[in-house]
Specification:
This protein is mainly β. The chain has a single domain, classed as Phosphorylase Kinase, domain 1. Helices cover 11% and strands 44% of the residues. It has one helix and six strands; from the N terminus they run ββββαββ. Strands 1-2-3-4-6-5 form a six-stranded antiparallel beta sheet, covered by helices on one side. One of its GO terms (molecular function) is ATP binding. Keywords: ATP-binding, Kinase, Nucleotide-binding, Transferase. InterPro entries: Kinase-like_dom_sf (IPR011009), Prot_kinase_dom (IPR000719), Protein_kinase_ATP_BS (IPR017441).
Length: 87
């Protein structure tokens, strides 16, 4: 079964994880661009991803900063090219 995020991104295999969520390889189904998608469990007691998204927007354009943030309803999905995940 194919999983999609925000109706625009195809979710692939898990490529990493951290304190605030898991990172998956994905694809923009419109442009076919390869992306990394960070997801946070909706049952998280103290959600952090929405705060992280705000910080990334403030730092937009900086070296190593994700180029795009995609939000779906109350959920925030951090979308960025995979090469941005590794310094």
């Amino acid at each position: 079964m194919e999983l999609r995020v925000g109706g625009r991104f195809r979710l692939g295999r898990k490529i990493g994880s951290g304190s605030f969520g898991d990172i998956y390889l994905g694809e923009n189904i419109v442009t076919h661009e390869e992306v990394a998608i960070k997801l946070e469990c909706v049952k998280t007691k103290h959600p952090q991803l929405h705060i992280e998204a705000k910080l990334y927007k403030l730092m937009n354009g900086g070296i190593g900063i994700p180029q795009q943030i995609h939000k779906t309803g109350d959920q925030v999905h951090q979308i960025n090219p995979p090469e941005k995940c590794n310094p």
